[in-house]
Write a structure and sequence with these properties.
- With 352 residues, the protein is mainly alpha-helical.
- The chain folds into two domains: 8-204 and 316-345, HUPs (Rossmann fold); 223-313, Tyrosyl-Transfer RNA Synthetase (Orthogonal Bundle), CATH 1.10.240.
- Helices cover 53% and strands 9% of the residues.
- The protein has helices spanning 2-8, 38-50, 63-66, 73-90, 107-116, 121-125, 128-134, 143-158, 171-188, 233-242, 258-271, 275-281, 286-313, 316-345; strands at 25-30, 56-61, 97-101, 163-165, 196-198, 207-208, 211-215.
- The strands form three sheets. A three-stranded parallel beta sheet has the order 1-2-3. It has a two-stranded parallel sheet with strand order 4-5.
- Helix 9 links the parallel strand 4 (163-165) and strand 5.
- Helix 5 (107-116) crosses helix 8 and helix 8 packs across helix 9.
- The structure holds adenosine monophosphate and tryptophan (TRP).
- Residues 27-31, 62, 65, 152, 155-156, 164, 166, 170, 173 line the site of tryptophan.
Length: 352
C-alpha cells in the first residue's frame, strides 16, 4: 500500500506540504453552543487575535460539532450568528484570517468519515471530554458525540495546521489528531502534517467563579459560574463581587488558594501586570477592594468588544459577507486536500 501511495506523488496533486520556510499554519475552532465567556476569550480567542499577524490562520465555527449534543434549528442558527459576531468583534480580521462556518465546507464531514477508518474505538472511548459529556448516560448519547474528536482531527488535518491554539481541555484531542495523522501517513504515504497544540502557560484553564475546582464552562447551569462576553457592566461587577474566595484575607496566588489564583490570573491577563505585582499592590487590602478593582478591569476589557458587537449586530450583512468569503477560501483549500486524500486511499473509480 505504501508503494502505491508513493506512486501517486507524481500525478500532480498537492503533496505533503512540509516546505521549509513557509509561514506556520494555524487552525482553531469553536462550537456555536452557548454564551461565549471569559474562559473562551482568555484561553482561545484572544490568542487567535494576537497571533493573526504572525501565522497563516484558519478559524472555524464548528456547527457540525454542535450537533453532537441535543439542540434545535433556531438555537443553532442564533448561536452561529452570535459566535460569528463575537469573533469579529473580538478582533478576528477576515482580511488576514480565513473565518468560516464548518458545514459550509462539506469536505470536513467527508474527511471525518475517512479518518474514522484509521481511528480505534478504544482511543475514542478514552477521551475525557466524551466521558465528561456522556456522563452516566452513555447509552443515550449520540454517535456524533463519540466521533466528535475525529471531526476535530479532520478540521485540523484538512488545512495542514502546524499549530492549534486552544485551552488546556483540548490537549488530548490534539494528541489523538497526531496519532490519527501518523497512522494515516504510515498506511497511505505522507499526507498530513502533525499538529502541535499551542496552549499558553496562563489562561489555558480559567476556573468557574463559583467553584474554582471546575473549569469555566458554557454548559454550566448557573450563569454565576462565568462572565459572558455579553454581560452588561453591572452584571459583570456583581458576578466578580460574588465570586467565591479562599479562606484567609490575603490577595495571593498559590496551590492553597485556587479561587484567588484564578481571579489574579484573570486580572493579570487583562491588565498585563504580573501576578507578583498585583499581590504587592493588594497586600493588606483584603478581598473586597481587589474584587471591586477586578470588576472594573473586566468591564474595561470587554467594553470595546461589546461596542463593536453592537455595531456588527446593527449590520447583519457584515458577518454574512465575511463568512461567505471565508468559506470560499476554505473550500478551495479543502477541495485540493481531499483530491489528494481520496487518491491516496484508492477511493472512487480513479484516474488511471
Ligand atoms: P468550548 O467552550 O468548549 O467550545 O471551547 C472553545 C475554546 O475555548 C477551546 O479552545 C477551549 O479550550 C477554550 N476554553 C473553554 N473553556 C475554557 C476555560 N475555562 N479556560 C480556558 N480556555 C477555555
Ligand atoms: N473541540 C473544540 C472545543 O470543544 C472545538 C473544535 C472543533 C476545535 N474543531 C477544532 C478546536 C479544531 C481546535 C481545532 O473547544
Amino acid at each position: 500500500m505504501i508503494v502505491e501511495a508513493r506512486e501517486t506523488e507524481t500525478i500532480g496533486l498537492q503533496t505533503a506540504p512540509s516546505a521549509p520556510g513557509r509561514r506556520q499554519r494555524v487552525l482553531s475552532g469553536m462550537q456555536p453552543s452557548g454564551n461565549v465567556h471569559l474562559g473562551n476569550y482568555l484561553g482561545a480567542i484572544r490568542n487567535w487575535v494576537a497571533q493573526q499577524e504572525i501565522y497563516d490562520n484558519v478559524f472555524c465555527i464548528v456547527d457540525l460539532h454542535a450537533l453532537s449534543l441535543p439542540t434545535t434549528r433556531e438555537t443553532l442558527r442564533a448561536n452561529i450568528r452570535n459566535l460569528a459576531n463575537v469573533l469579529l468583534a473580538s478582533g478576528l480580521d477576515p482580511e488576514r484570517s480565513v473565518i468560516f462556518v464548518q458545514s459550509d465546507v462539506p469536505e470536513h464531514a467527508e474527511l471525518c468519515w475517512l479518518l474514522n477508518s484509521v481511528t480505534q474505538f478504544g482511543e475514542l472511548r478514552r477521551m475525557t471530554q466524551f466521558k465528561d459529556k456522556a456522563g452516566s448516560q452513555v447509552e443515550g448519547v449520540s454517535a456524533a458525540l463519540f466521533v466528535y474528536p475525529v471531526l476535530q482531527a479532520a478540521d485540523i488535518l484538512m488545512y495542514d495546521a502546524d499549530l492549534v491554539p486552544v485551552g488546556d481541555d483540548q490537549k488530548q484531542h490534539i494528541e489523538l489528531t497526531r496519532d490519527i495523522a501518523e497512522r494515516f501517513n504510515a498506511r497511505y504515504g505522507e499526507t498530513f502534517v502533525l499538529p502541535t497544540p499551542d496552549i499558553k502557560p496562563a489562561g489555558a484553564r480559567i476556573m468557574a467563579l463559583d467553584d474554582p475546582t471546575k473549569k469555566m464552562s458554557k454548559s454550566a447551569t448557573s450563569p454565576n459560574t462565568y462572565v459572558a462576553l455579553r454581560d452588561d457592566p453591572d452584571t459583570i461587577r456583581r458576578k466578580i463581587r460574588r465570586a467565591v474566595t479562599d479562606s484567609g484575607s490575603e490577595v495571593t496566588a498559590g496551590p492553597d488558594k485556587p479561587a484567588l489564583t484564578n481571579l489574579l490570573t484573570i486580572y493579570s491577563l487583562l491588565s498585563g501586570e504580573t501576578i507578583a505585582a498585583l499581590e504587592a499592590r493588594y497586600a493588606g487590602k483584603g478581598y473586597g477592594v481587589f474584587k471591586a478593582d477586578l470588576g472594573e478591569v473586566v468591564v474595561d476589557a470587554i467594553g470595546p468588544i461589546q461596542r463593536r458587537l453592537a455595531e456588527l449586530e446593527a449590520d447583519p450583512d457584515a458577518a454574512s459577507r465575511a463568512l461567505a468569503a471565508g468559506a470560499e477560501r476554505a473550500r478551495e483549500r479543502a477541495r485540493r486536500k481531499m483530491a489528494l486524500v481520496r487518491e491516496r486511499m484508492g477511493l472512487g473509480f480513479g484516474r488511471s
